[in-house]
Amino acid sequence: MRCPTVVATAGILCLAASSLRAGEPERQPSPNAGAIVRVVDSVLAGLTLQEKIGQLVQYSGGWSTGPSGRRISDEQRQIIRAGQTGSLLNVTGAAETHELQRIAVEESRARIPLLFGLDVIHGFKTTFPIPLAEAASWDPDAVELSARVSATEAAASGVHWTFAPMVDIARDPRWGRIAEGSGEDPYLGARMAAARVRGFQGASLRDPASIIACAKHYAGYGGAEGGRDYNTADIPQRTLRDVYLVPFKAALDAGAQTFMASFNEIDGVPSSGSRFLLTTILRDEWKFDGFVVSDWNSIGELIPHGFAANPGEAAERAINAGLDMDMESHCYRDSLESLVRQGRVTIATLDEAVRRVLRVKFRLGLFSDPYHGATPERERQELRNPAHVAAARKMARESIVLMKNAGSLLPLPPNLKSIAVIGPLASNHGDLVGTWAGPTDTNDVVTLLDGIRETAPGAQVTYVQGCSIAGAETTGIASAAAAARQSEVVILAVGESEDMSGEASCRSSLELPGRQKDLVREVCATGKPVVVIFMNGRPLDLSWEQNHVPAILETWFLGHEAGHAIADVLFGAYAPTGRLPVTFPRSVGQVPIYYNHKNTGRPTDDQEHYTSRYLDLPSSPLYPFGFGLTYTSFRYADLRIARETVKAADTLLVTITLTNTGLRAGDETVQLYVRDEVGSVTRPVRELKGFQHVHLDAGGSTVVTLSLPVDALAFTGLDMRHRVEPGMFTVYVGPNAAEGLQGRFQVVPQ
Ligand code: NOJ
Question: What positions carry a catalytic annotation?
């Protein structure tokens, strides 16, 4: 359900009317904070030095007693029994986790429950769209529900903690992990980050359907130079605070209990050893009282970074910076004891890290129910429960972006006699789940071909693959063109394989891989009406298709319900509502490209030589941030700003009249941007500050009111203070970051 209300603020929620409805966030500190402090301190007081260190060590699993038949080895049993680990990752299954937990709480001396962590990124057994796709819904309520479903399934399977949401801002589509985040914008990213944290953690962490969230990768990981994973991020502190850290703060405000330190360095300091990030900002400024986990081996990687000479130094720099739990580098396991004995790490520092970990375990209720309600029966009930699958279809429909629809080719008429379904992604199960799909079963994917056959049972559907995703062979292209010639309409599914985005999956090109370009060109040369469906984990270069193909849908990787969702859109059961959460460049040469850039002293003017531009390409993107079409059109008129002058504590109301000028009902996402005209430092040309979904019948018209809290205009000024600076602002209200009506207002001193 999308909110049809007409007043928007950054905070108004319109939760889906569903039994899966997520609740209000659990703010920290929790109401019984005093009691938790006392219990944590008393547990801590009973621990030996080795047991304390154990709480800060996380091992990877594969420690299964489950259907795989693998047994817990004596060595593994001994590690848990001796209290040498506080957490395991990559172990799932109610029965499997139960046995491991039983050893911890019944056979170890200290009886401290383990925390089971997993990358639950976009679904567990029911696979939802990749996070970038979900962000294209611009629907925080739907995204919250998606996270809630994931949490419900994962928790039933014994998982306590997800390494999500990934809230990294990404301005470079070459970077493979752009698939895993919410795109380029701090405001949209913050809304999505908060929604996901609320969904994972629920109204109460003690609810057996809740799992702990982890805001990652802290920080600046998305700024990887050249779009190459793990690379250095060169981010000035002001940009770090005003852009990259914004979604992290939103995750924290929504109650996120853990953060993950990132692999990259900024300004010579790798995050896993950055006291500035982990203590000054996170604890001193933001008052975070959960714990920080390293990324996989990121403490050990302080050595190749050249930030530590050996594992002992790496452990010392990390824990003294404020990094609490070591994921798999073993530096804490092997070095903390001697570091404490030598006085290089104080017992107070160690105790504080252990306290943070224990506190989160208490908040999750593990000391009263170490299994957190997971049982094989619950697991059977929850995994791929029909309500979850329905939520995945709804989320998938909302994630689709209509990029082009010349001559209103879409929606397709119901009485088509013949359809050619072509392309390496048309009848594909494995790739549609996307990166980080977790313990999914790809047999549960509804392919595009399945969806079309189900939705158009009267049509003769001919399927030809044409070519593979990345291979060099072209032999199937002729039969694809022949099938196209014999059909009324062609649906052509092209894109990337699931492993072309995600971790360590960066590309230097944004072009369709393999021979798919040839396939698209040959099929289009038949002159038949062609709908190209892109499936990919990043913005691709769609320039040729934009110029030559009548209809284009960007469908990312939509998960299990992909085929149903795309067919819903193709045949008009659902009119597209998605909007781009990231700019699509004309070519890789424009990268990095993002809408909230600076103006420069010589703003782009393609007619003027000495301006900031390219000789061989316009500076504008192919599709701007916020862009997306639907099956009707809208007119924006009559922008009114309630007051000409405001103060920092005010809320400004901005109204426009929106009219549905087409022949069908439709939804518009009305977007509000501002520009701070002159500052103590330069400001972006536009910044998104709010949006509102509006549903209008054909010919309908309504006044849309957007509210802008003036304090949302604050930024880090020349003096590094975060505040609103008095002066003139331009406000834009429109359908994307490149269009809109505009007006002005003034912020005057308080
Ligand atoms: C490395 C990835 O960077 C991180 O996102 C993930 O959570 C961990 N591995 C654990 O799988």
Answer: 295
- What is the position in ligand 1's atom list of the atom closest to the CA of 216? 5
What's the 606 CA to ligand 1 centre distance in angstroms?
A: 43
- Do the domain assignments include residue 478? yes
Q: Which two tokens stand for residue 393?
A: 């279809």
**Which residue in this structure is represented by tokens 């301006």?**
611
pLDDT, residue 5, reads: 33
CATH code for the domain in which residue 418 is found: 3.40.50.1700
Residues 6+ apart with CB under 8 A from 348: none
Distance CA 231, CA 172 (A): 13
Answer for the pair 134, 143: CB distance below 8 angstroms, yes or no: yes
Nearest CA to ligand 1 atom 10: 296
Domain boundary among 562, 590, 618: 590
**Residues with Cβ within 6 A of ligand 1?**
119, 163, 216, 295-296, 503
> Do 531 and 669 fall into the same domain?
no
CA gap 418, 406 in Å, rounded? 21
Query: Which residue type occupies 565?
Result: A
Strands (E), 385-504: 401-405, 418-422, 460-464, 489-495
Judging by DSSP bridges, how do beta strands 87-89 and 115-118 pair with one another?
parallel
Token pair of 744 as six digits:
């002005």
Mind listing the pLDDT tens digit for each residue in 381-404? 999 999 999 999 999 999 999 999
The string of pLDDT tens digits covering residues 428-462 is 999 999 999 989 999 999 999 999 999 999 999 99
End-to-end CA distance of the chain: 40
Together in a domain, 558 and 441: yes
Same-domain status, 515 and 450: yes
Indicate whether 576 belongs to any domain: yes
State how far the Cα of 218 lies from the Cα of 203, in Å rounded to an integer: 25
Ligand 1 center to residue 188 CA distance, Å?
23
DSSP assigned state of 513: P
Cβ neighbours of residue 236 closer than 8 Å, sequence gap 6 or more: none
Q: How far is the CA of 260 from the centre of ligand 1 (A)?
A: 9
Mutate to test the pocket of ligand 1, among 58, 87, 116, 163 (most ligand atoms within 8 A of CB): 163
Strand, coil or helix: what is 473?
Answer: coil
Residues 453 and 574 in one domain: yes
What is the count of structural domains for the chain? Answer: 2
Are 408 and 532 within one domain?
yes
Residue 376 belongs to a domain? no
pLDDT at 71: 64
3-state secondary structure of 282: helix
pLDDT digits (tens, 9 = 90+) for 260-291: 999 999 999 999 999 999 999 999 999 999 99
Does pLDDT of 64 surpass 80? no
Q: Is residue 561 one of the residues assigned to a domain?
A: yes
What spacing in Å lies between the alpha carbon of 717 and ligand 1's midpoint?
34
What are the Cα distances from residue 422, in Å, to 57, 70, 107, 461, 530? 50, 42, 58, 10, 10
Whether 419 and 487 map to the same domain: the answer is yes
Range of the structural domain that residue 665 is part of: 634-747
**Pairing relation of β-strands 258-261 and 741-747?**
unpaired
Q: What is the model's pLDDT at position 61?
A: 82
